[in-house]
């Protein structure tokens, strides 16, 4: 293709102007250079590789916090200054107190737009508030109560399928449990949110959308190549139209994302068409809250078709591997803590026996809430494994961020708050916060669910997050809308699995690491395979 040099020159000139403007804008911000921090790897990418391509997630966070305190100064691309914080009050201020005043940076919004569409994860300000209000009823207590039998049935189906497929003539088997959990959660979100059958448990990744999801995040984001790392690192310097163009390239990490989103949109459109036809025929079908919002006559509560498709792709992705991987981590720890696993199993038996005695075939939400050993397992797993280990936000105005844990400056002064200029980027380390000894006690770096039974031992208590001060579901106006759904689903899955199988480590010596693969994913150390993998020995009970 021939392109007139005048267009190329004009394009290059405009991009240079953009970069110069951005450079000076960033230079004119209030300095945070007085804060301590790690030396950058290079001026070009700063500390970005430490966070985005670590040997194991948390390596950088834990060592920096130990060396410099819970709030520090890191470098990003072209020497950009970033504030890094794991401080409870700072995170609470950004996510809760300041409302929408710390929006997502433009490059992260474009990323969510390209992966999920213009749905809830992408929206900001009043648009976000409106979408969230329309979606909230789908996650109400009444809606969740209705999902419990579905979670149980899907998990039960998986238990039967695992027994049929893997346990013919054997009592014990090493199984990659992440694969099964991913199938269970895909079936559950498809049916719970949209009445859509993926049949992932019974037919594996047979349907085209299930196939597109299979290994999507590790394939795109695990073990980033130098080219992908460089591309991600410069995104904050590019005008949004260029970021859009980059995401459309069918190469490298964009390739799997690109083919997935095309399929996800097709399937979402198909579901909308079928449900709408059923509704217009006066049949069931459109009982789902979002479908009804699509058909509403009231403009305040109406989700247009352009708005509903992104909500579907958002819920498919946000509500699937998140719970599968967190449940995998729970089983990982239970397999290494057999005595605690026994306590959970006893609790399951006792709760089911009590429900049967009162004539109930299904456990209720109150039953699940009463299972203290299981609930402590979930909370401790969420604390120890925040699958979204950090979130990045940008100050929407000049502001002052308060600290609960003062830090020392380079000159030895005590810093109790950080003034920041509009546009300052802040990296909130959930993985760092979730392991602070000041919050969780001296044994914060151990997986020990008993801490939630005894009462957490740390000296600092700031209300943060949506469950027991754990930050893993984020917090505030944009905290995870599906957190209750997730906790109930994970409890229901663990109940069915633990009732049928005992989990223990596999006999061969495999070391599991928390790999950076879009989300914190279990992988075998040293394996060349970029895929979630958690082999556990399952023994029939
Ligand atoms: C263990 C499971 C889960 C974890 C750890 C988790 C974590 C998170 C986090 C950290 C955020 C904030 C993201 C951001 O601000 O960019 C978030 C948002 C969100 N999550 Fe979850 N999530 C989980 C399960 C679910 C489930 C099951 C659903 C749906 C059924 C869901 C739907 C969403 C949605 C729609 C948002 C965007 C909320 C908003 O911006 O208002 N999540 N989640």
TrEMBL record:
UniProt: heme binding residues: 480
Coiled-coil ranges per UniProt: none
Transmembrane domains' residue ranges: 6-24
Keyword Iron assigned: yes
An example molecular function term from Gene Ontology annotations: oxidoreductase activity, acting on paired donors, with incorporation or reduction of molecular oxygen
Cofactor (UniProt): heme
Gene3D superfamilies for the chain: Cytochrome P450
Family according to the record: Belongs to the cytochrome P450 family.
Protein name as annotated: Cytochrome P450
Source organism of the structure: Sphaerobolus stellatus (strain SS14)
Lineage, opening ranks: Eukaryota, Fungi, Dikarya, Basidiomycota, Agaricomycotina
């Amino acid at each position: 293709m021939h392109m007139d040099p005048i267009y190329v020159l004009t394009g290059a000139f405009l991009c240079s102007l953009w970069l110069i403007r951005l450079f000076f804008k960033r230079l004119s911000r209030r300095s945070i250079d007085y804060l301590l921090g790690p030396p950058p790897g290079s001026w070009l990418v700063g500390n970005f590789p430490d966070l985005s391509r670590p040997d194991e997630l948390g390596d950088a966070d834990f060592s920096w916090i130990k060396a410099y305190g819970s709030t520090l100064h890191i470098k990003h691309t072209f020497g950009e200054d970033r504030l890094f914080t794991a401080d409870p009050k700072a995170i609470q201020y950004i996510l809760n107190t300041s409302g929408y005043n710390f929006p997502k940076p433009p490059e992260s919004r474009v990323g969510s737009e390209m992966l999920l569409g213009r749905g809830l994860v992408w929206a900001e300000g009043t648009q976000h508030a409106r979408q969230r209000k329309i979606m909230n009823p789908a996650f109400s207590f009444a809606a969740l109560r209705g999902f419990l039998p579905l979670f149980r049935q899907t998990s039960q189906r998986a238990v039967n399928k695992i027994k049929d497929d893997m346990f013919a003539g054997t009592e014990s088997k090493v199984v990659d449990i992440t694969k099964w959990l991913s199938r269970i959660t895909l079936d559950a979100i498809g049916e719970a949110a949209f009445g859509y059958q993926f049949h992932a448990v019974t037919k594996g990744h047979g349907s085209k959308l299930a196939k597109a999801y299979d290994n999507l995040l590790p394939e795109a984001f695990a073990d980033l190549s130098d080219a992908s790392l460089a591309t991600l690192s410069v995104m904050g310097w590019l005008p949004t139209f260029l970021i859009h163009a980059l995401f459309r390239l069918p190469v490298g990490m964009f390739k799997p994302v690109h083919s997935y989103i095309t399929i996800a949109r097709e399937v979402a459109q198909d579901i909308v068409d079928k449900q709408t036809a059923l509704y217009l025929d006066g049949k069931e079908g459109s009982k789902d809250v979002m479908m009804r919002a699509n058909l509403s006559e009231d403009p305040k509560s109406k989700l247009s078709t352009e708005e509903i498709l992104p909500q579907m792709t958002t819920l498919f992705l946000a509500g699937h591997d998140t719970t599968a991987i967190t449940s995998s981590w729970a089983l990982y720890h239970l397999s290494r803590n057999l005595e605690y696993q026994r306590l959970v199993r006893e609790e399951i038996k006792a709760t089911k026996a009590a429900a049967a005695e009162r004539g109930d075939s299904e456990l209720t939400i109150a039953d699940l809430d009463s299972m203290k050993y299981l609930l402590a397992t979930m909370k401790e797993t969420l604390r120890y494994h925040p699958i979204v280990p950090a979130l990045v936000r940008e100050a929407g105005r000049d502001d002052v961020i308060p600290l609960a844990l003062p830090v020392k400056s380079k000159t030895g002064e005590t810093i109790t708050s950080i003034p920041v200029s509009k546009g300052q980027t802040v990296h909130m380390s959930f993985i760092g916060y979730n392991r602070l000894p000041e919050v969780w006690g001296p044994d914060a770096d151990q997986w020990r669910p008993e801490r939630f039974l005894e009462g957490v031992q740390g000296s600092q208590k700031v209300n943060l997050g949506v469950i027991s001060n754990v930050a893993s579901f984020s917090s505030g106006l944009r905290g995870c809308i599906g957190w209750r759904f997730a906790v109930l689903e994970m409890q229901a899955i663990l109940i069915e699995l633990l009732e049928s199988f005992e989990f223990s480590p596999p006999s061969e010596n495999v070391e599991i690491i928390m790999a950076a693969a879009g989300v914190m994913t279990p992988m075998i150390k040293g394996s060349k395979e970029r895929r979630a993998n958690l082999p556990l020995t399952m023994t029939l009970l």
